[in-house]
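Hey,

The postdoc asked me to send both predictions to you directly instead of through the lab channel. I've kept everything plain text so nothing gets mangled by the mail client. Protein one:
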Amino acid sequence: MRLLITAGPTREYLDDVRFLSNASSGRMGFALAEAARDAGHQVTIVCGPVALPPPTGCAVVSIETTDEMLQACLAAWPHCDGVIGAAAVCDYRPRERATGKIKKTGGPRLLELVETADVLGALGRQKGDRFIVGFALESQDARPNALRKMESKNCDAIVLNHPSAINADVNEIELLTRDGASHGVWRGTKRTIGRQLIEWINGRFAPR
């Protein structure tokens, strides 16, 4: 299969030097890409800024902002059989980006934020007969929020994990599908979980 995988964080700039982001390392997305490559799939990774070298044998598109990730994914999506959205996309951006570097004034500064583009939702609206596996990083009402995200983004399955997964070598996930079924709680290194998820995707979505 031809798989699109998103990985790492996105950045939303306040000015020319400061940005909003998160501590996502890209490890989970890269582990999935390695496992998919090793399983014989053609892999395109759309990745935000990370310190890790990308997996060899995969097409890599490097981006910074959420809009850049969206455009890269929309360009790749027509040529793919499915997507795994493992990126930790920044949900908000400043309404206006300042030119240059914002200087201190000795007082508070108000920052107005607006929502960024919904990358996985946009792919879901163009889904057709392809599959979508999303990730939901939740700290409160975890399962109900993950199920709502799966429905709203037209995912076939969603990987529920906790904020402790960010920038960690290990992870604990629960795999949920559209029928509300849980396919188990998996614990281990991100490479181990990446292999398990690709094996599950092969069994669920690979052409017979």
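Protein two:
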Amino acid sequence: MAKMMWAGRFSSEADPKVNDFNSSIKFDARMYKQDITGSIAHATMLGDTGIIEKSESEKIVEGLKGILSDIESGELTFDPNAEDIHMFVEQVLTERLGDTGKRLHTARSRNDQVALDIRMYLRDEVKEIKELVVELIETIINIAEEHVYTVMPGYTHLQRAQPVTLAHHVMAYAQMLYRDLERLDDAAERMNYMPLGSGALASTTYPIDRKQVCGLLGFTDITYNSLDGVSDRDFCIEICSAISILMMHLSRFSEEIIQWCSWEFKFIELDDAFATGSSIMPQKKNPDITELIRGKTGRVYGDLMTLLTMMKGIPLAYNKDMQEDKEAIFDAVDTVKLCITTFIPMLSTMRVYKDNMRAAAAKGFINATDCADYLVKKGLPFRDAYKITGTLVALCIKKDTVLEKLELAEYRKFSDKFEEDIYEAISLDTCVMQRKADGGPAPEAVQVQIEKLKGRLREMLK
């Protein structure tokens, strides 16, 4: 069994169950690269400031590099009996270098060490998540560019409301996802402050150079309060919040795909590679991926609630409760990455049934607003035009017809403003093509939206 670094204070060994309960190596081992990188910067600073001999600093750095190489090659495996990744690395270093290895932890606590590691780890993970979100946005843009003329019904209250295009509809999700990128960026920027040097809670009496370590590790600046430096987990909560909102957007999109796949809509069909069958019903083709994303969204919300609840009653500074931060934020990160990597190819390979979309748009009187607008343009107040159109819709329902097929004579019974051009005004194509206002569904407006978003992505990725 690995000997605990804090064993000197105690006269007897902890119960094995306590050691197991206390251990975090099973989940924090994933931070080995960040832990070693942070230790290399710390050791370099210790040597440069003369806190330890330069020759020993150099040996420690080389030893740490060797440990990193051995872990990545598989030559060195994690000891399940180690208390955490920090102690594991230090124990291996001490086994290899003897007393020199024991000098690494000078002017440092595990409290500021773990605060550093998790910031560095999440900094790397946020970058990967952003790359995936960008790829998803680009996939959506590709679909939009193919379907700027694909007319479909737009909905409110899940009732057919007004005609839009598939391009316009999916670009709404591209806009949501771009805001997710901004949130992740913003959270990552606020997180990028270096806590090492905060010590256990009250910094250190050694003449350390925190700015040097900050520069070596690529942080914006150091943290300026040692109590806050070790006890802050705002960044975990903020990133998990951003991920939760991102998952909510994926879940909303998934819900639409689930509906669109159904025989009641049949707007799209998923590729066989991204659907499953039934154990008893041979005709079934189930959109399980989107259903899982919908379910996993609740899981990520749970991770966020774990973090918020964990932190809400903790006095300054570090408390062991905070060990629970890692499993929650790691799970949120793993889940969103898994969902996006599956969502992208599913979306890019789906088949769109344009005729079904247009047929659905032709029903439900989704051109009624345009009929009212026609009368307004002829001089009627909008409320009068609204009432006349509503009466016409009621007449159509009674006659089992639609506005486009109603005789002009019927129109003129309700207003002499109606002329032959009413049929052009309420055609689906006109309804869509005339909505040219910025942000509207007209093809030229959607194309502007696409180009603007492409430009914003290029600017963000510079």
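Summary for protein two, as requested: The mean pLDDT is 94.

Thanks,
C.
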